[in-house]
Amino acid sequence: MDPLFTFSAIRQLTRRLFAIGVLSWLFCNPPVLSAEERQGHGLDFERWVRSTFFENYQPAQMTQKWDIPAAANQHFGNLAATVKSSKYGSQIDLGDARRQFDIASQQQSFLFIIGFWKPQRKNQKQWVHAVAPTITARQYRKLWHPITSADLERLDAVIKDRSLSMSEARQQAHLIKSSPPFNLAIIKVNPKIDINQRRLQCSLRFADFFQYLAPDENAQLPPSPKLFNRPLPTRLPVTPRHTTDP
User: Fold this and answer.
1) CA nearest 45: which of 81, 85, 87?
2) C-alpha angle 222/112/187, rounded to 5°?
3) Is the peptide bond before 181 cis (omega within 30 degrees of 0)?
């Protein structure tokens, strides 16, 4: 056999195997948005909502209770509003669990404005859907049943107990959240424990959002997505956010 032919064949085979390996790695490790990029997307959507529908209302502080206070909502029922964004089909992050539980405990309806996106290239996404249902206190409380304030305090205390290592805190928090009453509730609590944070967040499954909070809205993608009859922008510029909500 010609040695040159053998060498050429081996080289071609090596190149093909390398290409297959690269494609396999990309398939198993698709590009994802970092936490800062996701937060930046949400902040830019909130800015667009405020400037488009609420006279460019500017919050006094990023950690205030409502993204849009009732006094700043002159056109959509004079209700306080929360503004969220989420990847279409994925769970919806609601933020601090105890704060959301406090909202559920109050006799107050509010506007839940949420934009859904699908990822495009790095640092970009396409806005594909948005809804703004009015949420009653009864609807929001139902998500938390049978969790009580004392239950949340108990779990939060474990998460923030600095006498526990991160591994111990994660293990104990997981055991608590996987047991009654937490595993019986519609809403999901999410302990965040790492070197930078010890927080108790909460989230809602995509399907549960439409079933329990937006039953009159269609979860399917509309051909021309709108919010309050205004077309959604195809894309929004990304401004990475370097702080996180408490």
Assistant:
1) 85
2) 100
3) yes
Sign of CA dihedral 104, 246, 239, 194: negative
Instruction: Quote the tokens at residue 182.
Output: 């937490």
pLDDT tens digits for range 195-217 = 999 999 999 999 999 999 999 99
Give the pTM. Answer: 0.79
In this prediction, residues 158-186 reach a mean pLDDT of 98
Distance CA 246, CA 243 (A): 9
